[in-house]
# Entry
Amino acid sequence: MKTLILSCNTGEGHNSCAKAIKECFEAHGESCDITDSLLFISEKASKFICNWHVRIYRHMPRLFKTGYKDAENNSRLFEKDSLVYEYLTSGSERMYEYILENAYDCVICTHIFPALALSDMLEKHPLPLVTAFVGTDYTCSPGTGESDLQHYFIPAEILRDEFVAGGVPQERIIASGLPARAGFYTGGDKEAARRAIGIYPTHAHALMMCGSMGCGPIPEIVEAMAESLSPAQELTVICGSNERLYEKLEMDYLLRPNIHIEARVEDMPLYMRSADLYITKPGGLSTTEAAAMHLPMLLIDAVAGCEEHNLDFFVENG
# Structure
């Protein structure tokens, strides 16, 4: 079997999910590729959508909340013949050619955008493909019910009724949990992990990260924590792609040996393994990865929309 995973760069969680699935396929000797689904519209479209998503997430969270609520309350937004649907499916012909050219047998979508485009493609060009959508948040995102794929993998059985109410046929739903890479399920020595990243092995360690985009009130939280950290307590802040945040915090805490500022990190399981507490916004994948590592979380209500549902899910279900 040759599998294609369609993701997009509107938040690293969709790509992290795709990488976890690819890792599993390859562990079983199967061929698996990941591609940015928005490139089938155009490279310009992919950059435009992803850049604006980052800007709104970082600087205008209230606007994101309003837009998400509008999408939840407007069931026609993603319907066929709507402007949004026509734009998101405008690359379906190029998707069809790509799938044919590379002889894929299975296509998995980790975002609703490619799920809609793939559904449109199959309506125009029926192919003997195995198709699936993987939900990356603990809610049925707007537009999910407008797609038409064979399988819908959802994060938890308790969400089944919500997905059915959102238009997904009951018989297509598989309550599988969210995929996380194997490294998040492997145990390890906490003190060794601390040594590996420069933390004193017997110190208490808090890890903070607000998504790959470095959004939310990180400077304010670090400032508040800095006032009360004892010499035996250390804090690591991962800024992700937010270069301005990294430069600011690096300068502000240059002389604080128990506050560590990182940009991007390659081995997130290592950092989580070293921590006693994970301070984070409730992204679908970041919460799943921390839960897989049995790492206690302090959730920041930084960006509403789907993450508000994630926060409610974790709090309500213990």
Q: What stands out?
A: The mean pLDDT is 91.
